[in-house]
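REQUEST ID: PR-0412
SUBMITTED BY: lab tech R.K.
PRIORITY: routine
TASK: structure prediction, single protein chain
INPUT:
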Amino acid sequence: MPDAKFSDPRLAPLYDLFEGDRADLDAYVSIAEEFDAGRILDVGCGTGVFALMLAERGHRVIGVDPAAASIEIARSKPGAGEVRFLVGDATSLPPMQVDLATMTGNVAQVFLSDSEWVATLAGIHEALRPGGLLVFESRDPARRVWEEWRRDWAPEHIEVAGVGVVESWAEVTNADAPYVTFEGAVTFPDGTVVPTSSTLRFRERGDIEATLTAAGFQVDEVRDAPDRPGHEFVFIAARR
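STATUS: complete
OUTPUT:
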């Protein structure tokens, strides 16, 4: 199940406010242009920030996400008419042949079981044209970023128009590698508290490469994430 931050209609409208600047997406826009990708599938598109960035630059984009509340926000944004937003995941896509499929942020790490991950790769493989590319990031487990989260995370407060000051906090509650769970809550001015919870799986680079190969991809390149150097793997894999 998606985290309430994405799936709860009370929280989805707040996601972009708390995330702020998404400079991490600039690298993926550059990759789309580097490979001249005309048709792009954004898997786990959330509130549509990246999909709309791509559409604004002339790419034809399909965004898919299982959180209906987030898709509703995406569809309400300026320029949304240029993007096809779908509620679902990579295993429930309509027929398509795209040049590039992406999973930005932590999307590739939300698939906790091997079966979920393999099914997702199979769905993306089917959606790509022959030779089309899958690009995604996954955090390097050797960096143990959850230790930084335990140390550095603090409650955030944002003034929301027509609502007031909203507080959001989260903390790591379990780190039993390769799984890391963090839980928290969002508190509204009227005292309403909405719990949140997410678990990510930190896969080793070799394990990811093996599953890509088994799913019919050729790993062309593994890059460093320019916004978090040394912390993430950025995979570029082609459909064989």
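NOTES: The chain has a mean pLDDT of 96.
REVIEWED BY: pending
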